[in-house]
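Subject: Interface between my chains keeps coming out wrong

I've been trying for a while to get a sensible model of this assembly. When I model each chain on its own everything looks fine, but I need the whole thing in one frame so I can look at the contacts. Pasting all components below, labels as-is. Any help appreciated, I'm running out of ideas.
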Amino acid sequence: DAGVIQSPRHEVTEMGQEVTLRCKPISGHNSLFWYRQTMMRGLELLIYFNNNVPIDDSGMPEDRFSAKMPNASFSTLKIQPSEPRDSAVYFCASSFMSRVMTGTGDEQYFGPGTRLTVT
Amino acid sequence: SQQGEEDPQALSIQEGENATMNCSYKTSINNLQWYRQNSGRGLVHLILIRSNEREKHSGRLRVTLDTSKKSSSLLITASRAADTASYFCATRASGYSTLTFGKGTMLLVSP
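Reply #2:
Try treating it as a single job with all components included. I did that and got this:
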């Protein structure tokens, strides 16, 4: 398997523009996570999908952020309009979470990230 | 906050030495995991230890967990320059499906 795939790897955009980040999870995984990493705040969970359904979006900063998972092999994170403070590295991760949370199969597999710069 | 806190924030050692990193957390957990992140890359899962386990080994890695103290340690033995990276602990709190990551320890191993 190629692992978690993210695109683009780098994105530079101007304030006010729409940004769309894309993720393809590992085939067979049923959970997908979007994270944001900055020096100041570390790694923050933005949203978590299980079986394509958003379960927890409490980490989404504000209405400018939205995420979708139309099928098991694709997810997007959209920022509209973008602001300079959105500059960060955005990671997508996937895992297989068993119905009974035994603590096994819980490890997450991260993509290479998208480095977003908003000027 | 459930967030794990790693200690130290940065660690610099010579090749061949052992590196020990610690993680403390605040709530009861289902499991604790350690991840590595090389500069400019995504995180890579290293090892998972469940709340009913006290110690686990994987190659040159040794993880301990003390649930009474709400702490864990990661020991890397016989370190190599290639071990240079940031190391993060992540906790799965009891009753939760997601992980909470600490801010990491930056390890520098000099040849």
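Reply #3:
Confirming on my end. The CA atoms of residues 26 and 32 of chain B lie 12 Å apart.
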